[in-house]
Amino acid sequence: MWDVPLVALEFRLRPDVNQPLSDSYAVKHNFSVTLGAETSCTKRTASKILMATLKLVIALGLQYEKFMEHYVKRHYLFIDESGAKGYADNRERYPGELGVIAGYLVPELYLSEYRAHLKKRLASIDGVGKLHITDLLNQSEARGVIFQAFLELEIPWIYEAIYVEGLYQSEFCEGRGGDGSHKELLHAKLFMGLMIKALALVHKFKDEGVEIVVVSDNIDAGVIKKFLIESEDYLSLLRTSELKREFKVYQKSTGKLLHCSSRATAENIPSHPGLELGITCENSHMTLLSDVLANSVNHYLKMEFESNPQMLPNSKQAISNHPLRNLLLCSYDENSEEILNISDIIYRREEKHLEQKAVELDAE
Questions:
Q1: Could you state, in order of their start, the residue ranges of all structural domains in the chain?
Q2: Which of 4, 208, 271, 284 has the fewest beta carbons closer than 10 A?
Q3: Does 2-363 carry CATH code 3.30.420.10?
Q4: Taking the CB of residue 342, how many other CB atoms lie within 10 A of it?
Q5: Which of 127, 186, 123 is closest to 347 using CA atoms?
Q6: How far is residue 327's CA from residue 200's CA, in Å, rounded to a whole number?
Q7: pLDDT in tens, 1-13
Q8: DSSP per position, 237-300
């Protein structure tokens, strides 16, 4: 039994393995992971648990004041995705290919008002019964009407974006600390990245108890299951301030199957004992808004990448040309010393690995 310190995260987060993990990444909080047996994979196991903790700590420092004058237990998070959403073994099909998920949070107290306003506001859109912006007859007009509705209601929104190539590199490229797992799903990573931001926005009501109901258009039951599995560790940390795991590892040196356990604690994370998460599907004016939001975020990020291939996709600079940028929450200034989105580090897109890919293709 031993404790693995935060430095176990270095091989996942450091852009350069020869440089120490900076204070801005470490956030100077006390984390520890105790593992039940010494195996070749303990460092990676510790890193994954610590990484989940670190993401939450950074996100919980964010503030959300819109609609927060009074306690509301249930909040609805309307979401949709755009771009890629496949598994980690997929490489980018074109430079800078992204997966994007975007959404907006509505307290239950305001839900009926929003639905009525949006139904009336969007009635002028020809073909509004369609499910997606790409199905509408006049997409430009529809976007304009929907963006205006966001501005009229001052709807705050959030998004999460990850490079397809960045996810691949994080799992399969040397020095990035991945497990080489083909099961890591971009869609699920995007979902959890967005959920962390949503959880940070409602943490003001942690003592009273909060329920987040995620609402999207049609999602397969299998994908919903992956979303819930992906969120288990984070929800456990928030509910109890600790994360326990049991797992089995084959130790080559002894030929034995080891029964291991791990435990992570995070005293700096406020406990959310009554936190609940649900996922439901509907096709409505509300989900059309999230569809337009996700589609537009992907569009503006693509445009930014064309002029800036070093773009950090979750930064304020990356989305600075979006018409609703002033309503965006949980973005960060890439010129600041504080990195407020760990995904931009873990899933960074490095040219050196792309160059290696080109060399390998030429050799074939």
A1: 2-363
A2: 208
A3: yes
A4: 24
A5: 186
A6: 16
A7: 233 333 334 444 4
A8: HHHHSEEEEEEEEEETTTTEEEEEEEEEEETTSPP-TT-EEEEEE--SHHHHHHHHHHHHHHHH
